[in-house]
Amino acid sequence: MTAPLYNAEILRLAASIPHHERLPAPMASAERRSPICGSRVTVDVIVNAAGRVSDVGLLVRACALGQASSSLLAAHVLGRTPEELAAARDGLTAWLAREGAAPDWPGMDVFAPALDYTARHPSIRLAFEAAAEAAATARATADGAPAHA
User: Fold this and answer.
1) With contact defined as beta carbons under 8 Å apart, do 37 and 61 qualify?
2) Which residues pair with 35 in a beta bridge?
3) Rounded to the nearest 5°, which phi and psi values hold at 76?
4) Distances from the Cα of 48 to the Cαs of 18, 36, 42, 59, 79, in angstroms?
5) CA–CA separation, 38 and 26 (whole Å)
6) Residues 6 or more apart whose Cβ sits within 8 Å of residue 139
7) In whole angstroms, what separates CA 89 from the centre of its chain?
């Protein structure tokens, strides 16, 4: 028997998203939307002089899986570099496609029951995709490169 897709841990994470408000003056923001279900996640970031995320804010309008993924992202994003966020995003994408091991990010095993539900994968990836883009844009802007929308 397989584990239920919406288990108690998914629901707990979905109900407790850290940093669940947008930042008043982010260095960069990125939004991702799942065309399949309409879930949407916006991530605002500030990076410090070392290029690491020092503050984050999220606006999450997503299903329970998207909310749970946003919760895991927000709980562990501070202090991460854009490269670490890109690696987590890419690892998550590969794992969901069964092309690699679970990404090196705390708590990701909670999504193992979703591996067989490919229509749910975009929602799970939203927060990681938005955070990786926002952090890269913020650092590029801080380094003097022009920001892109």
Assistant:
1) no
2) none
3) -130, 15
4) 20, 35, 20, 22, 9
5) 24
6) 47, 51, 81, 82
7) 7
One-letter amino acid for residue 26 of the chain: P
| pTM for the predicted model, two decimal places | 0.92
Percent of the chain with pLDDT over 90: 87
Answer yes or no: are the C-beta atoms of 123 and 5 closer than 8 Å.
no
| pLDDT classification of 145: cutoffs 50, 70, 90 | low
Q: Other C-beta atoms within 10 Å of 138: how many?
A: 25
| Paired tokens of 71 | 């919760």
- Name the strands in the sheet holding 28-33, side by side, starting at the edge strand that comes first in the sequence: 28-33, 40-47, 53-61
Scan for tokens 């982010």, then name that residue: 26
Looking at 14-108, which runs of residues are DSSP E strands? 28-33, 40-47, 53-61
Mean pLDDT of 108-123: 95
Question: What is the rounded average pLDDT of the residues 41-62?
Answer: 97
